[in-house]
Specification:
mainly alpha, 55% helix, 12% strand, two-stranded antiparallel sheet, single chain
Length: 86
Amino acid sequence: MPGKVADFLRAADLEPAERVALDQGVAVRRGQGYTLRVRATPAVHRQLLIRCKSLDGTPGAPAIPAQRKARREYENRVTALVSNTL
């Protein structure tokens, strides 16, 4: 998962399984940012994706383009993961 998404989720109120998955993730430096490699079931990844939906922006709070892109990339990775396991 992109670092911007991981940073957002660390500040969120998460379920215990989601928190454990984030805490056990391994950070890998990527250029200016980082990627967090998280080993979790597809269901946990989908829950994390739902929780970071607000990165797309909400009425009255505009989206930050870099965060929106990071969430979209994470969504693409989760979708690919789920389709590969079926």
